[in-house]
Structure formats: structure tokens, C-alpha cells
Amino acid sequence: MARLSDSVDSERQYLESLECATFEQPAFNAPRKLANCNVALVSSAGLMRRGDDNVRAGTAEYRSFDNKIEDGELLVNHVSVNFDRTAFAEDVNTVFPRQLLQTLASDGVIASASDEHYAFMGATAPEQMQSHAATLASHLHSRNVDTVCLLPV
Amino acid sequence: MSALAHWFEQAGLHTVVIGLIKPHLETMRPPRALWVPFELGRPLGPPGDQAFQKRVLLAALTLIETATKQTLIDFEDDDPRSTPDPDWRAPATGAATSVASELSRLQPAITSFNEAFGRSSVGVAGLNLAQCASLIDETLATGKPPASADGGSALLQFRHACDDLKAAWIEAALANGKPSSRQLHDWFWLHSQLGLSLRKLREQWLAGDDEKLAGIGARFIVPHRWRV
């Protein structure tokens, strides 16, 4: 699935009806050697740390997770029932591949994996997220992160 | 996520999106994107297959080095775990007549999964599974969620209890084999007491007079595929 042709009609119509923002003069930064990149992950899975407050539906705020957080401490708290959660149950890397990224760093493919990774609540209006994105971008710069891999669910 | 990519790029960061819905990537045109033909909810593809997942992640990250302008490429390989496992058998639940009794029957498989994987993805409700099951059974009996013990939203507590129970039923189903997501969800929504009960509750709420319950029923209980 995720080929829309494999979706049931109501799901396909819903996904096709979602309004997508467009960007008139998008920025594009010049290519960079992957071996020099310090990479952070940003997920839209509405992740929360076990025991923390729930992630509110519609919130545009993000949460930070230490790179070394145990898989068992991560929970999906997304409002949507329309995406598969069986893969996360079996293997957190399918959604939030911290361990894989660390492997790429150990192999020298990337310079390093960020000490922190991040999650937003997807299904939030993008315009509400802009100020939080700016805050996170500053935070990433302050931690010498230069590259972000974004992982919608 | 594509909007975030644009804003991060404007802020001087290099970005790449691993996206699941191609028309959205084509419209929003993030600076660099890899479209993957996997089910929503698993951008890296098959669970437990690190070699495959690594290929996905590398295909995306390589665009940081190779793309010289806005780029969208396809990942060509399908998720091998989308193929049904003929050897998988659904957990035995007998003729459970309530969610609580079904939980009792599934508990050994849930425990087996937790021991084998060393973790659980249950925990968003702040209740134990027996409390979640009682909450759902009470909702089924009365037609509306009971008040939250901490004075919070009853509907929110209901939703979180549903999420935890669904997570536990998934763990039970994964305890003995590697079903495809479709196999597992077909069992859950078409055969388990919990899944059948939630579908029935949705129909009740949609047919009722309470707009709030109807709104929750319309969108937040049953996935599109199993709504009819």
C-alpha cells in the first residue's frame, strides 16, 4: 500500500482531498558530502516517552528524544487510526531508525548521528507548525546538526 | 513533513523526506524526497529486515550528496512483508463474549511477545490492560465512555484505552509468526471481539444523536478499510 491504487475508495478520496501547501521560491542548499553530515531524524508519528504527558491532537509542538532512548520507552500517540502500527510494534526502526542511523555513522557513511531526534504530531495544519519548525531549526544549528531526514507516517 | 523540509532548508539545513504518499510529494515538492511504496506507518518498510531498511535510508540520504536541484525519486522495491505469511495462525480467542474475557485469553501471547521482543508498545492510556478492557466493555454496555478517573476527557481516555488494547492485540498476533499487516488487521477487525465491538460501537455512535460521539466514531475508531 501507499500506492493510492491499493487503498479503499474512502481512504483514497480522503488522501487526495487533503490540501497541500505549495512553496513559490523554495530554498535548495548545495550538495554536501554525506560523510560530513551530522544527521537528525524528524518523525510525524506523534511519539511520546513512556510516562510523559500525552501528545495533544492538533498540537504543533515537537518532542525531543535522546539518541540512546530505549525502544521500549517510545510510544506512538498519534491521533490517526489510518496507518499501520504493527511494524512499529515489531521494530521501531521502521518508523524512527535511530539504530540504523547510528550504524551509518559507525560505518563512516555519515559523520555522525545527532544526539537527539524529534517527533511532531502529524495531521497538524502545516501553517501552525512554522514557528515550531523555526525553533527546532535554531536548536539543530546550536547542536551542530546540519542535515535532517524527515519521516512521515 | 514536506512543509517542514522547506522551512528547515530555508534555515540552512539540508533535508530529505522519505514519503509515502506520492501525490503529496509531487504537489509540495520538498527539496529532496524519496517516495517509498510501503504501507502508511512504515516509511522504512519491513520490520526486522535491517538490510532492506538500510537501503531505504541510504537511498534517501544519498540525495544530500547527489541532488543538485529539487528532486523526487522512487524506491523501486516493494515491502517483502506485505506478502501474507501462509504459516501464520491468528491467536486463539475462543468464543470471548467481552473484551475483558478476550484479554484473558490473549494475555499469554501478549506476555510471550513482550518477553521475546523485550518491550511493549502499550502505555499511552496510563491504565493497565485490564482497566482498559473494562473501560471498553463499560462503553459498549452504556453506549458512552465512562468518566475519566483523573477528571480529564472521557473521550480522550477512551481513545487512548483503544490504542493500548489494539497495541496489545497486535503483540498477541505477532507472538507466533510474521503476518502481513493486512493479515493481522483482517483478523483484528473481522474476527476479534475487540475489533468487532469497536466497529459496532462506531455504527451506534454514527446513528445516535450525540454529535461529539458521532464525530469520534466517524474518524477515530476504525480505519477506512474496515468501516463497512
How would you describe what is shown here?
The complex is a heterodimer of chains A (153) and B (228). Chain A is of the alpha/beta class. Helices cover 26% and strands 19% of the residues of chain A. Chain A has one domain (41-151). Chain A contains four helices and seven strands; from the N terminus they run αββββααββαβ. In chain A, the strands form two sheets. In chain A, strands 1, 3, 5, 6 and 7 form a five-stranded mixed β-sheet that branches. In chain A, strands 2-4 form a two-stranded antiparallel sheet. The model of chain A has no long low-confidence stretch (mean pLDDT 93). Chain B is mainly alpha-helical and 228 residues long. Chain B folds into two domains: 2-82, no CATH class; 99-226, no CATH class. Chain B has nine helices and three strands. A three-stranded parallel β-sheet of chain B has the order 1-2-3, with helices on both faces. In chain B, α4 crosses α6 and α5 crosses α6. The longest helix of chain B is centred in the C-terminal third of the chain and has 21 residues, at 154-174. Chain B starts with a helix and ends in a 9-residue tail after the last helix. The chains are: A alpha/beta (153), B mainly alpha (228). Chains A and B meet through α1, β4, α2, α3 and α4 of A and α1, β1, α2, α3 and α6 of B.
Largest interface (CB < 8 Å): A-B, 83 and 89 residues
Structural class, from secondary structure content of chain B? mainly alpha
Structural class of chain A: alpha/beta
User: Order of strands side by side in the largest beta sheet of chain B?
Assistant: 1-2-3
Helix content of chain B: 40-55%
